[in-house]
Amino acid sequence: MKRLIFIAMLLAAPVWAVQPDEVLQNPVLEERARELSKGLRCLVCRNESIDESNAALARDLRILVRDRLLAGDSDAEVIDFIVARYGEYVLLRPTATGSNWILWAAGPIMLLIAAGVGLVYIRGRSRAAASQEAGLTEDEQARLSEILKD
């Protein structure tokens, strides 16, 4: 029985972030708030949603989301309001439009450039004539023999 309770507590750990005084009375609005909170980044914890974070700023953002929902905003209006206030960084899944398109495309473009540079280098190496190492001259061979005798 203790193991079952322990497992349930581990699975419910992200739920601990939302305080009872934040929960809305309307279950439909609360569910919308939870879904929106899962897509918003905690600005303190970085890669944690505000729904999972215990930071004070995450709590303020959760309350802000719920206030906007109570005011009658749609989900898109709530997200737009928060993005207008905190910037697109607050989204856990940023859009691939505008200046973000450059960031989304940079990885594949750099991979293609690196593959092209590597291909040119390998083809250049395979076309290069094998270098012939010249042997030692008689003077160099004599000097080497002298050094090795010592």
CATH fold description of the largest domain: Helicase, Ruva Protein, domain 3
The main sheet comes to: none
CATH class of the largest domain: Mainly Alpha
Rg calculated over all Cα atoms: 32 Å
Task: Report the portion of residues in β strands.
Answer: under 5%
Helix segment count? 6
* Classification by helices and strands: mainly alpha
Arithmetic mean pLDDT: 83
Can you describe what's shown?
- This protein has 6 helices and no strands.
- By secondary structure, it is mainly alpha-helical.
- The protein has 2 domains: 9-90, Helicase, Ruva Protein, domain 3, CATH 1.10.8.640; 95-125.
- Helix 2 (27-38) crosses helix 3 and helix 3 packs across helix 4.
- It is elongated.
- It comes from Sulfitobacter sabulilitoris.
- This is Cytochrome c-type biogenesis protein.
- The chain crosses the membrane at residues 101-122.
Give the structure's gist in a few sentences:
This protein is an all-alpha fold and 150 residues long.
Which properties best describe this structure?
single chain; 150 residues; mainly alpha; Helicase, Ruva Protein, domain 3; 2 domains; 59% helix; elongated
SSE layout and pairings?
Blueprint: H1 2-11, H2 27-38, H3 56-70, H4 75-86, H5 100-127, H6 138-149
Helix pairs in contact: 2-3, 3-4
